[in-house]
């Protein structure tokens, strides 16, 4: 049972990790805690559904199209909303509130356009992969492979490519990066493209793993994602990866009967926050965040 | 359209605006004066409402004993459970932890069936098979007020009670922020380190403000329970916290009497969008129109942040959202 829970935790954790990196790079570059991120994920999941089921394109092209569509939406939102706010030098508070407004608009627009009914992708629910004592459904299996690939790709992108390094430099110290000749506008567009691709991918994977989903599901995923971002230290991309994986595993293992009889599965999101609260008491700046220097 | 002209409907809108005023006043104290980014305010409304209902149904207390305990419970929860661990955190972390706290409260209320009645709400508080009521004592008081003031309906009596309470609380907060205590709060809002370097115990002030603001949310929770005579965990979604934020930003951050203005304008927008029954909205069914209402609310919030961050009555010089 332990290994099975660990495998489930890896599945949950890798979806959380992908989404958390998206939230984290946006925060790092733009100082924006994007409350609308869960709804961007739901947007991606629904676009993929539209291509997968009614149009019958199959899961892979549908996922890629959904990622592109979410990235386009993110860039468009930057032009109509975030850029004007930056021009007004809006602070943390204004940006957060605007993203709450945006989350409301996006979610209700999705409900209006797609309807509240739950839906599922066309995958075979009875196909099971057995690895030793661990059983994974096809959706879980695909999710874990894709997520591992995506996490590796993100790691390479951030550490090896010029654009990735530039983004991390800007997250570290924006003024210094601008002085060093970084084209800030270009990096911001790249950030939104990356965040959108990740939101689309995370949305599709979350929808696959949960088997059924509706336009509200992004918001329910948002709080564990925030917990992962904070656990890793806001703005640190590697921290978000680690935080997502750690929380996913903690959430699933908490139901293990050997540990205090196991927690009722409905409290999994609460476990995420208990872990977060405990970690923040020890390190208020998050696991990978830098301590505030006064 | 008949509801537009009916007094009963507008009395209802007025009562809800009064409850929102008390609720948002707590947030105004915390954010407008002390600069604390509380995004879990709804949790304390839930704690107030649930404590009231549980004490009346399960412990058999009278409304008049249960209500003060409920308010105190909300205040203590705000000060200790939320305040102590999170004051060490930076503002952005604090904001996220507070949302998390409010969702945990809602999770517990949904899943601890034996304590709260679970997702069925307060109707399932008592023994299985009985529909629990906690409102008898309050309804008697409401009828008594109605008879004493010769009012035409119970709604009118509720309107009077809620707004008198709201005005008393507004006045108390208005007086409090004019004392040296209130000036220290504003100093903390402007520059925490400077206030600390003057020997002010910043942490203690923040805890007091968290506790007082949460107690105000607890009072709003009691009125919410009394007004609707039934509630369930779904009534305390994070959306309600955002409504309170919208109210203080609409009215003006850092101004006590901007809160009722914001609440009335917000209540007007929220109730007014109910009458979207002209084209093109008339093509939509009622569920779709509910979505459109929230889209309008979201757009108003974005528009405020973009074009009028100081609100209707705010002083731009003193408080621009940063």
Q: Percent of residues of chain A in helical segments?
A: over 70%
Number of helices of chain B: 14
The parts of chain B where pLDDT drops under 50 for at least 5 residues are none
How would you describe the shape of chain B? globular
Mean pLDDT reading of chain A: 83
How many strands, which pairing sense, and closed or not: the largest β-sheet of chain B?
A: none
Strand content of chain A: under 5%
Describe, in plain words, how this protein is organized in 3D.
The complex is a heterodimer of chains A (294) and B (322). Chain A has 294 residues and is an all-alpha fold. Chain A is 72% helix and 3% strand. A two-stranded antiparallel sheet of chain A has the order 1-2. Chain A is globular, with a radius of gyration of 19 Å. Chain B is an all-alpha fold. At the A-B interface, α3, α4, α9 and α11 of A face α5, α12 and α14 of B.
Name some characteristics of this structure.
heterodimer; A: 294 residues; two-stranded antiparallel ribbon; 11 helices; globular; B: 322 residues; mainly alpha; 14 helices; 0% strand
Blueprint of the fold:
The complex is a heterodimer of chains A (294) and B (322).
Chain A: H1 2-30, H2 37-52, H3 59-87, H4 92-114, E1 128-131, E2 134-137, H5 138-160, H6 162-172, H7 174-179, H8 184-210, H9 217-232, H10 237-253, H11 268-282
Antiparallel strand pairs in A: 1-2
Helix pairs in contact in A: 1-5, 1-6, 1-8, 1-9, 1-10, 2-3, 2-4, 2-8, 2-9, 3-8, 5-6, 5-8, 6-8, 9-10, 9-11, 10-11
Chain B: H1 2-5, H2 7-33, H3 42-59, H4 63-86, H5 91-111, H6 113-116, H7 136-148, H8 154-176, H9 180-190, H10 192-197, H11 202-228, H12 238-251, H13 258-272, H14 286-307
Helix pairs in contact in B: 2-8, 2-11, 2-12, 2-13, 3-4, 3-5, 3-11, 4-11, 7-8, 12-13
């Amino acid at each position: 049972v332990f290994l099975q829970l660990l495998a489930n935790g890896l599945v949950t954790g890798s979806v959380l990790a992908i989404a958390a990196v998206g939230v984290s790079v946006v925060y790092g570059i733009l100082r924006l805690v994007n409350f609308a991120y869960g709804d961007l994920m739901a947007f991606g999941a629904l676009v993929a559904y539209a291509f997968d089921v009614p149009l019958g394109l199959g899961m892979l092209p549908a996922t890629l199209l959904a990622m592109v569509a979410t990235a386009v939406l993110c860039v468009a939102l930057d032009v109509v909303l975030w850029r004007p706010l930056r021009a007004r030098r809006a602070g943390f508070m204004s940006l957060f509130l605007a993203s709450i407004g945006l989350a409301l608009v996006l979610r209700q627009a999705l409900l209006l356009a797609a309807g509240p009914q739950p839906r599922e992708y066309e995958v075979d629910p009875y196909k099971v992969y057995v690895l030793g004592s661990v059983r994974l459904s096809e959706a879980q299996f695909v999710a874990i492979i894709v997520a591992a690939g995506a996490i590796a790709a993100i790691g390479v992108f951030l550490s090896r490519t010029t654009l990735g390094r530039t983004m991390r430099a800007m997250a570290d110290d924006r003024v210094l990066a601008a002085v060093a000749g970084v084209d800030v506008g270009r990096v911001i567009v790249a950030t939104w493209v990356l965040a959108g691709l990740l939101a689309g991918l995370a949305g599709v994977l979350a929808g696959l793993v949960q088997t059924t989903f509706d336009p509200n599901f992004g918001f329910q995923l948002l709080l564990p994602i925030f917990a992962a971002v904070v656990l890793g230290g806001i703005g640190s991309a590697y921290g978000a990866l680690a935080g997502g994986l750690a929380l996913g595993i903690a959430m699933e293992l908490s139901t293990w009967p050997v540990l205090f009889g196991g927690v009722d599965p409905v409290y999994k999101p609460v476990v995420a926050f208990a872990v977060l609260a405990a970690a923040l008491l020890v390190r208020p700046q998050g696991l990978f965040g830098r301590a505030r220097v006064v | 359209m008949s509801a537009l002209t009916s007094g009963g409907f507008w009395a209802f809108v007025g009562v809800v605006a009064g409850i929102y005023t008390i609720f948002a006043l707590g947030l105004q104290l915390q954010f407008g004066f002390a600069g604390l980014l509380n995004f879990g305010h709804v949790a304390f409304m839930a704690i107030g409402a649930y404590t009231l209902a549980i004490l009346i149904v399960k412990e058999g207390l009278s409304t008049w004993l249960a209500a003060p305990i409920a308010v105190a419970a909300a205040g203590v929860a705000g000060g200790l459970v939320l305040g102590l661990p999170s004051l060490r955190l930076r503002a952005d972390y604090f904001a996220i932890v507070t949302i998390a706290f409010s969702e945990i409260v809602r999770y517990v209320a949904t899943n601890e069936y034996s304590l709260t009645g679970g997702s069925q709400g307060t109707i399932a508080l008592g023994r299985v098979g009985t529909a629990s009521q906690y409102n008898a004592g309050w309804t008697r008081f409401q009828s008594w007020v109605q008879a004493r003031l010769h009012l035409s309906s119970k709604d009118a009596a509720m309107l009077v009670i809620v707004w008198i309470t709201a005005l008393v609380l507004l006045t108390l907060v208005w007086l409090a922020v004019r004392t040296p205590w209130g000036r220290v709060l504003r100093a903390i809002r402007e520059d925490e380190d400077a206030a600390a370097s003057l020997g002010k115990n910043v942490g203690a002030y923040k805890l007091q403000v968290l506790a007082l603001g949460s107690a105000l949310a607890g009072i709003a929770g009691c009125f919410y329970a009394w007004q609707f005579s039934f509630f369930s965990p779904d009534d305390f979604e994070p959306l309600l916290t955002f409504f309170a934020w919208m109210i203080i930003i609409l009215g003006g951050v850092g101004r006590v009497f901007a809160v009722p203005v914001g609440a009335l304008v917000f209540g007007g927008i929220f109730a007014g969008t109910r009458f979207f029954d002209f084209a093109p909205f008339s093509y939509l069914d009622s569920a779709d129109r509910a979505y459109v209402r929230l889209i309008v609310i979201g757009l108003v919030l974005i528009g405020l942040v973009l074009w009028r961050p100081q609100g209707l009555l705010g002083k731009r010089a003193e408080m621009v959202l940063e």
